[in-house]
């Protein structure tokens, strides 16, 4: 059995007015591929500032995007392997 560990770095930045929160995610995997994504959360101007909510939304969105990219690459890899087996 082999154990692997992949680490995602998420950097969260809130603007000075606490209206927009951005999250950047980076994932380097052992085969040399690098995944990066940036997503945002915007506060409705009528809502009171609650920074934790913006952090959670932006981080959740950036992880969802990263997940989609990984799933897309995995699907492409599966198709490539299937094509190799057909030959």
How would a crystallographer describe the biggest sheet?
A: 3 strands, antiparallel
Percent strand: 25-35%
Helix content: 40-55%
Structural class: alpha+beta
Order of helices and strands: EEEH
> Major sheet: order of its strands?
1-2-3
Q: Whole-Å distance between the termini?
A: 30 Å
Number of strands: 3
Query: For the residues shown, what is the average pLDDT?
Result: 94
Give the count of helical stretches. 1
Structure in words:
By secondary structure, this protein is α+β, with helices and mostly antiparallel strands. It has 1 helix and 3 strands, in the order βββα. Strands 1-2-3 form a 3-stranded antiparallel beta sheet, covered by helices on one side. Strand 1 (8-14) and strand 2 (20-28) form a beta hairpin. The longest helix is centred in the last third of the chain and has 36 residues, at 51-86. It is elongated, with a radius of gyration of 18 Å. The mean pLDDT is 94.
